Design the sequence.
């Protein structure tokens, strides 16, 4: 007579099998931490999605601009250093690169700000000088001074997340506002010019003859 249960591998065979129970518990303990990790990651991504990248905090706000000194991108011209930012008047510091696609899109906004009479300084970040000069020759040069941060060390001091980034500096050389990403026409009216006004109020009159009238009309 044949034993019909011999060699059976179905659920009936696993009932009451202590080894099978242990394997199930082991698999459960492996899955639970993974699911928990995904839940935390999901919550983080949702929170990040609700955050405007331009609102990311900066430890430089209301503090003196970092200590740095850069040679000029242009041969024979003055470079850019901390002392230049301590001169009277509000000024912008724009960190950019020729390889940065958003920098190209932003460039007309910088020219518009310079056209309003604002002093705009540039820090050319981790770039080839020849490429950076060709970029400015093609699109125009809105900068009063351009420092060449070839090694990226000044970018570290400025706490750069990525290019472009723009800082509004008051007449004392303090950072009033940090803008992450390319400036748009809307940003000029909603963020940059209000920051310029705040910089003026904090102790730095706007640089350039056209800044007051432009800000008042904006």
Sequence:
């Amino acid at each position: 007579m044949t034993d019909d249960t011999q060699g059976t591998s179905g659920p009936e065979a696993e009932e009451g099998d202590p080894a099978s129970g242990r394997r199930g518990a082991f698999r459960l303990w492996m899955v639970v931490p993974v699911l928990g990790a995904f839940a935390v990651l999901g919550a983080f991504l949702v929170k990040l999605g609700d955050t405007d990248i331009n609102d990311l905090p900066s430890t430089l706000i209301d503090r003196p601009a970092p200590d740095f000194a850069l040679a000029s991108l242009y041969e024979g011209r003055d470079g850019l250093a901390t002392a230049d930012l301590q001169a009277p008047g509000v000024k912008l510091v724009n960190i950019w690169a020729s390889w940065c696609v958003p920098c190209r899109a932003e460039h007309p906004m910088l020219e518009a700000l310079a056209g309003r009479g604002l002093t705009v300084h540039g820090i050319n970040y981790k770039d080839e000088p020849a490429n950076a000069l060709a970029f400015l020759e093609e699109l125009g040069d809105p900068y009063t001074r351009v420092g060449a941060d070839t090694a990226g060390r000044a970018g570290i001091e400025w706490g750069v997340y990525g290019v472009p980034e723009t800082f509004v500096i008051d007449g004392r050389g303090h950072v009033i506002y940090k803008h992450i990403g390319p400036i748009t026409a809307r940003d000029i009216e909603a963020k940059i010019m209000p920051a310029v006004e705040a910089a003026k109020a904090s102790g730095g009159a706007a640089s350039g003859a056209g800044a007051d009238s432009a800000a008042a009309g904006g």
The longest strand covers residues 119-125.
